[in-house]
Every structure is written in structure tokens, then in C-alpha cells.
Design a protein that fits this description.
Blueprint: H1 2-13, H2 21-28, H3 35-38, H4 46-61, H5 65-74, H6 78-93, H7 102-110, H8 119-123, E1 134-137, H9 141-145, H10 148-160, E2 164-166, H11 176-180, H12 184-199, E3 206-208, H13 211-217, H14 220-223, H15 230-239, E4 240-242, H16 243-247, E5 261-262, H17 268-271, H18 278-285, E6 294-295
Parallel strand pairs: 1-2, 1-3, 3-4, 5-6
Helix pairs in contact: 1-4
Bound molecules: iron/sulfur cluster.
Iron/sulfur cluster (SF4) binds at residues 1-2, 5, 30-36, 46-47.
């Protein structure tokens, strides 16, 4: 499949094949999971080739309407993303979500139960700990709107380890969807906003708990390749780190075992983009025998 996609891209780029709707659909279906890249002996970067082709046809033909609206009018403004999820909550409350068009309903089905408050709302009135040891934290759109409790727990762990957690209010979407679907102008605009938001934060490391955001931000240098901001973007990218990688050698024994077994799914953007596999398991098992939490 990957070889087929690469061939389509090559023939399109050398002018021997026009971009048809079917071909575009094949390229759009690539998830960028890199399963083909890691099993390919010379590691041909299918994900990058597909992204480059998408960027080219996005310029030539624009984006399909729904994606255009999502990229330009929802994901690029944090408050609009929150508003969109508030609407989903409302529609679910009045049980009208079954009236969504089929493709929208399929996407809505992927969303878990939505929390009452966003992360920023939960943070009101809570003071973050001050410490000489500081670490940045990138709050993803999903963190803020869907999993705020996870971030609260991450802060708790970091504060217990005596870190001050800095989450600048100016951060926006990492730009993963824009980057993946070839809306590079907007991907760069969002990247600039995030780089600017952390510029005055005085942190050496920017932690995240979202593997897709991590790998996107780690590619900010690639996004600005050949431009005057490339050095600054590379510097930012080099400071982005998965929270499990950061914690793996910091959590020490003494934790209370949890009477639970959890399942863990290796995110493609952790295991295949960043080679992160053992670190989450080490963090879950830290604290001696029996491990505080067993992952399956
Ligand atoms: S990156 Fe994943 S979805 Fe895309 S061609 Fe490779 S295996 Fe298929």
C-alpha cells in the first residue's frame, strides 16, 4: 500500500499522472502511522512523502469544505474548539446527536464523555507551586477540553517531585492536523504562536502528554526549513519531551500499589516517531514490587 502511494505521488510530481479525486482519497487515507516506515529496510519516509503531496494539492485545489472549516475556523482558535465541544455536550444532553450526518456522527462517537470544565476553568483559584526547578508543559487541545483531569494529575506528580509547572496562557493547537493535511501556512502560524508563548517562560524542557503534539512540535524545525525562523524553531523542537521520558528516572519507590490493572496502547506518534516504548511502562511500574500499576 505504501509503495502504491509513493508511486502515485512520484507520477503526479513528474507530471505523468493528474491528481484525481480517487488518488487524493488514497493519499488522504494515510494515517501517518509509520508502520510501513519502520518495517521498510531503507526506511523510506512515506509519512513525509504523503505530507509533501498533500501540501502540493492543498495549494492547487484547496481543502474539502468540512476540513477547511475545521482547520481554519475551529482548530486554529482554542476558544472555538472549546465552543465546538460545548455544542457536542449540549447536543448529547438533549440526545439529538443521532441526527448528525454519518461522517460527523462517526467522529462524535470517538469522543469520550466530556468533562464539565476545561483545564483552564479547573485551574481557576488553584495556585501552581513555585520552585527553583521549572518545567514547561504544553497543554494540548484535547488536554484542555477532554482530559483536564489527566493534566491535573500530571501537575500533581511534577509538583510532588518539586517542579514548578509553567503552562503559558498563549499556547494554541500544535498544528498537527494542519501539518498533516498540507495547510502549511496555518501550521507555521500556530507554531510561531507556541514558540512565542514559551519564549519568556524560562524553561529548558517543554513536557507534553500527547504523542501527536510531541512529534508535531519536534518537527517545527522541518516546518521552517530554509526560513529565518528555522534556528529558533529547531531550538524549541529540541526542548519538547514526552512526560514519561522525563519521569522515568525521577519517580522513586514508596508509591502505594493501586488495586487495578490498566491496558496501555502505544501511540503511533510515541512508538514509531520517537521510539518511546519502555518509558511509560517504567513509570507505571516505578515504586518497587508489586508495581503500583500493572499495564497490559
Ligand atoms: S504511514 Fe501507515 S497508513 Fe500511511 S501508508 Fe504507511 S502504514 Fe499505511
Amino acid at each position: 500500500m505504501a509503495r502504491g502511494r509513493i508511486r502515485l505521488v512520484r507520477e503526479h510530481l513528474d507530471g505523468s499522472l493528474d491528481l484525481s479525486a480517487t488518488m487524493r482519497n488514497y493519499l488522504d487515507l494515510c494515517l501517518g502511522c509509520r508502520a510501513c516506515v519502520v518495517s521498510c529496510p531503507p526506511q523510506v519516509p512515506t509519512d513525509r512523502i504523503v505530507r509533501a503531496a498533500r501540501a502540493k494539492y492543498a495549494v492547487q485545489q484547496g481543502q474539502p469544505l468540512v476540513r477547511h472549516v475545521l482547520l481554519r475556523n475551529v482548530l486554529n482558535k482554542p476558544e472555538r474548539f472549546s465552543l465546538a465541544l460545548d455544542s457536542v455536550k449540549l447536543v448529547r444532553t438533549v440526545r439529538l446527536n443521532h441526527l448528525f450526518p454519518k461522517t460527523l456522527k462517526a467522529k462524535e462517537d470517538l469522543l469520550p464523555e466530556l468533562p464539565e470544565q476545561t483545564f483552564w476553568e479547573m485551574l481557576k483559584g488553584r495556585k501552581l507551586k513555585k520552585s527553583a526547578k521549572k518545567t514547561g508543559f504544553f497543554l494540548s487541545c484535547m488536554d484542555n477540553n477532554v482530559f483536564p483531569q489527566v493534566v491535573m494529575q500530571a501537575i500533581k506528580v511534577l509538583e510532588k517531585l518539586d517542579f514548578e509547572v509553567v503552562i503559558p496562557t498563549g499556547i494554541v493547537c500544535c498544528g498537527a492536523a494542519h501539518h498533516n493535511y498540507g495547510d502549511l501556512d496555518n501550521a507555521r502560524r500556530l507554531a510561531r504562536q507556541n514558540i512565542r508563548a514559551f519564549a519568556s517562560a524560562d524553561v529548558k524542557v517543554i513536557l507534553t502528554d500527547c504523542a501527536s503534539c510531541e512529534s508535531t512540535m519536534q518537527s517545527y524545525g522541518e516546518l521552517f526549513e530554509g526560513e529565518k525562523e528555522e534556528g529558533e524553531a529547531q531550538n524549541f523542537a529540541s526542548r519538547v519531551m514526552d512526560i514519561n521520558v522525563f519521569l522515568q528516572d525521577k519517580i522513586v519507590s514508596g508509591s502505594q500499589p493501586v488495586d487495578a490493572i490498566a491496558t496501555y496502547h502505544d501511540p503511533c506518534h510515541a512508538v514509531r516517531y520517537q521510539n518511546i516504548k519502555e518509558e511509560p511502562r517504567k513509570v507505571a511500574a516505578a515504586g518497587g514490587e508489586p508495581p503500583p500499576l500493572t499495564l497490559r
